[in-house]
Amino acid sequence: VTTRISVVAALNVAALQIMLTGAYVFDAYFSAEKAIDTFVGEKEAFPAGPPFFSVRMLDQSVAFYLERTVTQVETKGELADGIAAEPEKFIEKMSDFEAKWRALDEAYAVMSPKTFQELQAAGLPMTVMVKDPRRVFVARGRWPPVEVRAPGTAR
User: pTM for the whole thing?
Assistant: First the structure.
């Protein structure tokens, strides 16, 4: 009986390990952490100065892992009350976003692959920083930005 219990326990542990390893594959679908780490770096902060837009999507993990606010474009979602309190953090029309994006020297955005294709076809100047299954992160201006900094220091 003890041997059977040991075998069942070992199989349960092995099954749990396989499940957890398999769940890791889907991580990029649910969280922007890995994508953001590729262009920010672990333990580093994304610059707070240039604007960052979330275009036609609401993904709370983006603002969380960037450690900064983002300006919503066309999609309010559950942020409608907050946007009502701070309307300057929302752009209602895509045409207004496009005009603002073109006027900026440096800006960043996240959007779905479909929205990226639409804006790319419309000729919006964007440089892809990184893609994952649900998101395309883009930059306005040179990417990576030209800057001199000591290794290991925050941006």
Answer: 0.76
